[in-house]
Every structure is written in structure tokens, then in C-alpha cells.
Write a structure and sequence with these properties.
Layout (H helix, E strand, L loop, with lengths): L2 H31 L5 H23 L9 H21 L8 H6 L5 H16 L2 H10 L8 H27 L5 H15 L14 H5 L4 H13 L4 H25 L3 H4 L1
Helix pairs in contact: 1-5, 2-3, 3-5, 3-6, 3-7, 3-8, 3-10, 5-7, 7-10, 7-11, 10-11
Length: about 270
């Protein structure tokens, strides 16, 4: 087979996969907002509610202060990206099982089910960014032009991380159904080990190792710096992409090893 023929086959396969993902994302968005009069409002209600709770518990009762930023604004800058991750990973265990009939009837790359779900949550996250803009203006901050390259750059890094983790979780859960409950516990622990409700600068130095080994921490910190400072930190961006690529490679190996038996077990 010539190089041109190989390239043509690869192009057709990529187009097929892209079309499948587009259809899945379209379906997810329709289901999410179908028959919902307050669809967009509900999409931001959850992170806003948790922001209010953490603000009262930590900002008012415990008087936690983040130098240079109003505490509610700091919370929002980390809470919205975290919500994307938590929603995608939290729903990942049922990614293949919930589509059992489709997997058994048709031959197609099963990973597009997870990619479509994660991309749907990514769009959901991007739709919440205007809320961040409103809060910035409310507190006297101004969005930066760094957002133009920064948001797509960080969104891609987060997609790699979230898709990687979600693919591995969905694949393993086909064989080990208790993983669904373990993922919920893991996400709760990871939330408090990630500087979402507190700044990394206030963490005592003996515990910095937990932030350094946390694959989500550089991503959340990069979002916070972009939204609050208008600055795209190159070190955090590189760390976020390295974490994302590691998650993607490991999950791809897990998926390839387990996917041939999905049809028997879902």
C-alpha cells in the first residue's frame, strides 16, 4: 500500500471518528437541556452553590483569606474547571455499561463514547465562563487578552487529563463494578488535596509534595492564574500537558488491553 493510500485510509478513519463524536456530543447536549426552561441557569447552579457554601464555611466562619483576591472570586476560578473534571470522571464508570446495547449491536471505536461525554462537559464548562467574567467585573477586575490563547490551551490540556482518567475508569469498571463507588470517594479526597478552596501558597512546605504529585493541581492553578491574574504560567502549562499526556498514554494501554472483552461483560 502506498503512502498516499495509507494517508487516505487514515483520513477517512479520522473523519468517521470525528463524525461519531460530533453526533454523541450533539445528543448529550440535547438530553441535558431538553424540556428545561432554565437549562443554562441549572448548568451554573451547582458550582455556584458549592462556592457559596465554601465561602460561608471557610471565608466567613473560619475567615480564610487569599491575599490579592476576593475569596468568592478565587473560589469560582478553581471551582468551575474542577466541576468539569468531577462531572466527567464521576460519570465515567457507567460510560460503557450504560451503552451496552449499542456496544453489542455495532462495531465502532468504543472510546468515542467517553470522548463525546468529556467534550460535552467541556462545552458545559466553556458556557460558564461568562459567569466568571461577570464576577470579575463585579469585583473590579478586567478579563485579560491572555484569555484568547489561554482558554483553548488549558482546555486542551484538561481534556487530555480528564479523557485519559475517564477512559481508564470506564474500562476497568466493566470488570470491577465497585470502582464506581471508589471513584466518588477518590474525587472527594482529590478535591481537598487540590488547591481549589485554598491557595497553594498557604500550604506548609512539608506538605508541598502532595501538590507536586497531584496531576490535577497544575491545571487548576493555571486556570486560577489565567482568570485572576490574566497570566498564562508556562511552567504550570507544561506540567498540565505532561500530566495529561501521561494519563492519555496509560489509559490507552488499559483500554487496548480490556476493550476486546467489553461485548461479553457489559
Amino acid at each position: 500500500m502506498t503512502t498516499l493510500a495509507i494517508a487516505s485510509v487514515a483520513h477517512r478513519r479520522m473523519s468517521y471518528v470525528a463524525d461519531l463524536i460530533f453526533v454523541l456530543v450533539q445528543k448529550e447536549m440535547k438530553v441535558r437541556y431538553k424540556n428545561s426552561a432554565f437549562g443554562y441557569a441549572w448548568s451554573v447552579a451547582n458550582p455556584l452553590l458549592f462556592t457559596a457554601v465554601y465561602y460561608m464555611a471557610l471565608g466567613v466562619f473560619l475567615r480564610l483569606n487569599i491575599p490579592g483576591y476576593p475569596y468568592p472570586l478565587f473560589l469560582i476560578a478553581g471551582q468551575f474547571p474542577w466541576q468539569w473534571l468531577a462531572t466527567s470522571v464521576g460519570g465515567a464508570p457507567m460510560g460503557f455499561i450504560a451503552n451496552a446495547s449499542l456496544i453489542k449491536r455495532m462495531r465502532f471505536p468504543r472510546y468515542v463514547l467517553i470522548a463525546g461525554s468529556v467534550l460535552s462537559d467541556a462545552i458545559h464548562f466553556l458556557l460558564t465562563i461568562p459567569v466568571i467574567v461577570v464576577l470579575l467585573l463585579w469585583y473590579g477586575f478586567v478579563p485579560s487578552w491572555s484569555w484568547v490563547p489561554g482558554i483553548p490551551l488549558l482546555a486542551l490540556a484538561q481534556f487530555l487529563t480528564v479523557y485519559g482518567v475517564a477512559l481508564a475508569v470506564a474500562s476497568v469498571n466493566v470488570f470491577f463494578r465497585d470502582l464506581e463507588r471508589l471513584v466518588g470517594i477518590f474525587l472527594q479526597a482529590l478535591f481537598f488535596l487540590t488547591p481549589v478552596v485554598y491557595s497553594a501558597s498557604i500550604v506548609p512546605s512539608p506538605y508541598h509534595v502532595w501538590i507536586r504529585i497531584n496531576p490535577v493541581a497544575p491545571l487548576i492553578r493555571a486556570w486560577q492564574k489565567l482568570f485572576l491574574d490574566g497570566h498564562l504560567d508556562p511552567l504550570l502549562v507544561v506540567a498540565a500537558y505532561l500530566s495529561g499526556l501521561v494519563c492519555l498514554v496509560v489509559s490507552s494501554l488499559v483500554y487496548r488491553g480490556l476493550s476486546p472483552r467489553f461485548g461479553e461483560l457489559v
